[in-house]
């Protein structure tokens, strides 16, 4: 009996099913990557079916991280597009630039709140996710992310009337700040309990509060 070839839509749906299952399992224990067989079981698929779409579990989770990055950059481009349409080519005052930066920072924070796997996966990029991958897969990931970053940076240049390339630089540095702050405050469970003591209050600030203040300070300085 002949089997019907899957359409592009069906393939994308199956791929999304695998990624959704992987995300759900990862959020149950975000200190390690679940196995391919557990992802297959969560998705209701055979293990071999998963391997038709991804060669390794690292491919699965780097693809998840790719979704998260592209989602964030798309969110920022939508914010910037609305601003650019509304203000045309008018010059921006310092207060207007600061207000727009504040809106973008709020958008970043809201996105991170709504995507709890993002920062954990991002922190694993070099040491875990970018291992056990083919060069072609890793190259495609890097190219896609670079294009999205440059597109968003160009939108930032236009909205804030910045020199060409400046927006991409601001985004790269903001990402470095976000990742570094997350990694410095993401204490393992045994340290969290230890650091609950009052004498350690200075080194266990609230991540979200610290991030908002750090981004505010960086963007305020960068745009002056």
**Rg estimate, integer Å:** 20 Å
What is the CA-CA span between the terminal residues?
A: 69 Å
- Mean pLDDT across the residues is 92
**If helices are DSSP runs of H or I spanning 4 or more residues, what is the number of helices?**
11
Helix share bin:
over 70%
Shape from CA axes?
A: globular
How is the quaternary structure best described? Answer: single chain
Strand content: under 5%
- SSE string, helix = H, strand = E? HHHHHHHHHHH
- Report the count of strand segments: 0
**Low-confidence parts, pLDDT < 50 over ≥5 residues?**
none
Query: What structural class results from the helix and strand content?
Result: mainly alpha
Q: Note the main sheet.
A: none
Overall description:
This protein has helices spanning 8-28, 36-43, 47-53, 57-87, 94-114, 117-123, 125-129, 135-160, 166-185, 189-194, 207-222. It is an all-alpha fold and 224 residues long.
Topology of helices and strands:
Layout lengths: L7 H21 L7 H8 L3 H7 L3 H31 L6 H21 L2 H7 L1 H5 L5 H26 L5 H20 L3 H6 L12 H16 L2
Helix pairs in contact: 1-2, 1-4, 2-3, 4-5, 4-6, 4-8, 5-11, 6-9, 8-9, 9-11
């Amino acid at each position: 009996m002949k089997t019907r070839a899957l359409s592009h839509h069906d393939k994308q749906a199956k791929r999304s099913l695998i990624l959704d299952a992987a995300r759900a399992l990862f959020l149950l224990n975000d200190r390690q990557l679940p196995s391919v067989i557990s992802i297959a079981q969560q998705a209701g698929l055979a293990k071999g079916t998963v391997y038709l779409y991804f060669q390794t579990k690292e491919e699965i989770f780097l693809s998840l991280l790719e979704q998260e990055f592209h989602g964030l950059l798309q969110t920022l481009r939508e914010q910037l597009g609305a601003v650019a349409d509304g203000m045309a080519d008018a010059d921006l005052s310092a207060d207007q630039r600061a207000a727009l930066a504040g809106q973008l920072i709020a958008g970043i924070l809201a996105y991170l709140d709504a995507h709890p796997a993002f920062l954990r996966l991002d922190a694993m990029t070099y040491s875990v996710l970018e291992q056990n991958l083919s060069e072609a897969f890793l190259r495609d990931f890097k190219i896609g992310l670079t294009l999205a970053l440059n597109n968003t940076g160009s939108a930032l240049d236009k909205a804030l009337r910045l020199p060409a390339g400046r927006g991409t630089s601001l985004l790269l540095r903001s990402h470095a700040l976000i990742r570094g702050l997350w990694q410095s405050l993401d204490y393992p469970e045994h340290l969290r309990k230890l650091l609950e003591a009052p004498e350690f209050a200075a080194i266990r600030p609230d991540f979200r509060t610290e991030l908002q203040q750090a981004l505010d300070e960086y963007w305020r300085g960068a745009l002056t």
